[in-house]
Amino acid sequence: MNPINRRQFVNRLSLTAAGTIAFSGLAYSSGKFMSGFGAEEFVTAESATGKLRGVRQDGVNIFKGIPYGGSVSGENRFRRPPKVDPWTGVRDALELGAPSLQTSGWGPKPAEDCLFLNVWTPANDNKKRPVMFYNHGGGYVTGSGGSGGQDGANLARYFDVVVVQTNHRLGLLGFLYLDEIAGADYAGSGNMGVLDITAGLKWVNENIDRFGGDPNNVMVFGESGGGGKTSCIYAMPEASPYFNKASIESGPGVRMLTKDLAAETTEMVLKEMNIAKNDWRKLLEVSPEQLLEIQNKFMFIPPFQAEIGMPEMHGFGPVVDGSVLPNHPFDPTAPKISKDKPLLTGWNEDEYAFFAMQNRNTEFTKFTFDDLPSKLEAQFGDDAATIVNAYRKASPNATAPQIFMAVSSINMMGLGSIEIAERKTKEEGAPVYLYNFGYKSDMKIPGSDFPMGTPHAMDISYKFNNVQPPKEGEEQRRMFGDSSPASCKASHNFAELWTNFARTGVPSAEGAPEWPAYNFNDRPTMRIDTECTIINDRYNVELDMWRKIGKLHTV
Known about the structure:
single chain; alpha/beta; 13-stranded mixed sheet; about 15% strand
């Protein structure tokens, strides 16, 4: 078994993203949070387009399935979302709206018309609370704003913030690039997914004061593919007026697809459907089911698209079109448009464990040091021995499988996160804060005795403060971690750091050390766990090596 590289990650994203959604839904879909209410009372709220009815439960007002854009099917397919038609009377906001078309997931049946959002707020009282606007993971092809592990009630309940999450177009419907063949009405077609998110942010700007939120204090954050989307939002002129700070979590969107590559993908889609370029409008007549079938024939693009030196790939994700997304988000520099907006970025210590679990890979757990160089050669060629030597020097007590895990994990999400932190620091604007999440799951990778550690996606339920002590008679069904006091403390730490960042632009938590902004002298990293720790120049031996072999691009 060779180490997973970023190209292999693309091929596996369909399984892993679906797993993230499905398992996180299981963790909290018992009915209380996601599939029903047991409501204390109904509550109403005014929006710009009409009155909404939600529920108040355990001190939180919950509104689900609020439309923030009109129909994006039929003649509106591949176009910017139209405005919502106002309604009379009271519209129920009690059920999740349909997520974008996808092959798997949890919740309502996916549909082409998917522009719905959910709001969790302590009260509809015109108080100016910070707003936390979350972009869900799942690559760019699966997921929703209603997955259980990311339920926003506990953040609202315990930290006095307003949480908003959207469904938005994904895959072919969200990112098929038609600008060069379809004319002005379809300008920005390759970025409809992130333009939908922008429309959701605009809805927040126009409405969130009625939900107890401050439209002038909005944090955008997201994990995995949601981190990639957040990277794009951070670099998009249209989104810029609607948020004040951001967090990119285990999804460092340094680069996105080029126009040339996106145009080639479009040609391949048309060829697959036997449609000539000048007959592109036939795409508007194809059934959603057939579009999804075509989509599934293409690779799944990870957040770190078009990495320097990486073979180009065809698939669906945001496009550097020179207009909606003028430049790569963080290459060669951080976006000037967000120079004054504070940023969080980082990754989980054992990202690769998630993918090993999803792909039932236990072979790496048996590697010896004699095996390791040859197992790394497929990805790193002649640099494999250099990599092994650097990691053995940095961690002389580590086993060969542990080194394999460390190498694979930092290549997935770590190096891009560091590039973002360094390029944002070089800009000399608002601060950027670098983190590692490190609380260790008590699980083993199935079929092995190798610990899961802190895998990809484990941070979701922790940062939403959804790791809570079990209630009497409650069955624990959690993908990662446990409900021990230590685990709950790590979750509270994570959530408090994030909500205080949303509130003030500076991440802080009671009992945690002061978190310095990233700088080139100390290179501080916050390690988030039951006890939080600042580690200066973490992984310095390994990172010096990655820079020397050209895998970490210096600024």
